Amino acid sequence: MTLVKITYASMTGNTEGISEILEEAFTALGADVEREEVDDVDEEFYEDADVCILATYTDGDGELPFNFEDFFEELPDQDLSGKVFGVVGSGDSELYPDYFCSAADAFEEVFEKAGAKKGADTVKIENAAEDEDIENLKAFAKAVMEAL
């Protein structure tokens, strides 16, 4: 069975909610899913995964969440070849139009440096996931699974 591992960081609860939607979507597609907050894992979290999913918000003026900084620095040193990845970001385009979901973009680059294959385009969500976002997340999960 396919093992999907999801890690996330959330300050307001928006990204945690997104990670829960992703967990449900991948489970509905028949995958085994492990979902963990980044504070509870290290850069080797994805070692035994088939699919690597990361959900993040963007802090301030385009910065990574503080608790994702070490993970971000060490992830490129992991060998993720043969694995499929996907990234989801939440942000606020009104407050930070120049930096909307830029942390998600940065993680996409890091996964590629680690040798993982992009399974779907990054999904960017305005604050909390609403009905259309939930459908986009389900489509994202399906595309990632099909990329295996």
Task: Please provide a brief summary of the model.
With 148 residues, this protein is an alpha/beta fold. The protein has 4 helices and 6 strands.
Description:
The chain has 148 residues and is α/β, with parallel strands linked by helices. It has helices spanning 14-28, 69-74, 102-113, 131-146, and strands at 3-8, 32-37, 51-57, 84-91, 117-118, 123-126. Strands 1, 2, 3, 4, 5 and 6 form a six-stranded parallel β-sheet that branches. It has four helices and six strands. 33% of the residues lie in helices and 22% in strands. The longest helix is centred in the last third of the chain and has 16 residues, at 131-146. The chain has one domain: Rossmann fold, CATH 3.40.50.
Describe the SSE topology.
Layout: E1 3-8, H1 14-28, E2 32-37, E3 51-57, H2 69-74, E4 84-91, H3 102-113, E5 117-118, E6 123-126, H4 131-146
Parallel strand pairs: 1-2, 1-3, 3-4, 4-5, 4-6
Helix pairs in contact: 1-4
Shape: globular
The Rg value, from CA coordinates, equals: 14 Å
Question: Which spans have pLDDT < 50 for at least 5 consecutive residues?
Answer: none
Structural class: alpha/beta
Calculate the terminal CA-CA distance, rounded to whole Å: 12 Å
Mean pLDDT: 96
H/E series: EHEEHEHEEH
Count of individual helical segments? 4
> Total strand count, please?
6
CATH homologous superfamily? Flavodoxin domain
Helix content: 25-40%
Number of structural units classed as domains:
1
CATH architecture: 3-Layer(aba) Sandwich
CATH topology: Rossmann fold
Please describe the biggest sheet, giving its number of strands, its sense, and whether it closes into a barrel.
6 strands, parallel
CATH class: Alpha Beta
Which oligomeric state applies?
A: single chain
Beta-strand level of the residues, as a percent range?
Answer: 15-25%
